[in-house]
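Hello,

Our lab assistant flagged a job as stuck in the queue for most of the afternoon. It eventually completed. Since we weren't sure the result was trustworthy after the delay, we are filing this so someone can double-check. Below is the sequence as submitted and the structure that was eventually returned. Let us know if re-running is recommended.
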Amino acid sequence: MEVTRRDFLKFSSAAVAGATMSQLGFDLTPVRAYAAELRIKGAKETPTICCFCSVGCGILVSTDKNGNVINAEGDPDHPISEGALCAKGSASYQIAVNENRLKKVRYRAPNSNKWKEVSWDWAMDRIASNIKKSRDKSFVEKNTDGKVVNRTMGIASVGSAAMDNEECWLYSKMLRSLGLVYIEHQARI
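-- returned structure --
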C-alpha cells in the first residue's frame, strides 16, 4: 500500500485527536435521555394583561394549588402580542415573587426623611381624607355663567394600562362622580 505524505498526516492527526478525546473523558456511547418534569405540571393557568405599558400584551400566569404564582409567560393565543413579551413583561413574574417587594404599607410624612410602617386602614382613611379635603377646597358648583357644573379642578387622574374596559369604565364613573375633569388614561399618553 502506498501512503502519501498527505494521507499519513490525515491518519495520524485523526488518531491523535481520538486519543486526546478519550483521555479527556469523552464517551461516544449513546446516552439515555430522561425528560424532566415541568414545574407547572398541574398548575392553573390564568390569562391576564401585562401591567407595564399601554400595549396590552397577554400573559399566562400559572399558580399552584395554594394560589402561589409559580410562572408567568407570554400568551400565544393573545391577539396583540401572540406570545411575545418585552424584557419588562418577561420579568413580570417578579411582581408577585420577589424578596425585595414591600409587603406592608409605608408612609413618609411631609418634610420627613424617614418611612414608617402603617396599617392598611390608616392608609385608606388618609387617602380618603386627602381626596375629600382637596375636593372640598377646589369644588366649583356653578361656572361664571351661573350654570351648574359640579366639578373639582384640584384633582387629576391618570389611569392604568393594566385595566380592562370594564375596570376603566368603573374607574371613570367613580372619578366623574367625584367631579373630576382631568381624567386621562395611560393608553392614550
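-- support follow-up --
The delay was a queue issue, not a problem with the job. The result is valid. Helices lie at 5-23, 87-90, 93-96, 120-138, 165-178. The chain has a mean pLDDT of 85.
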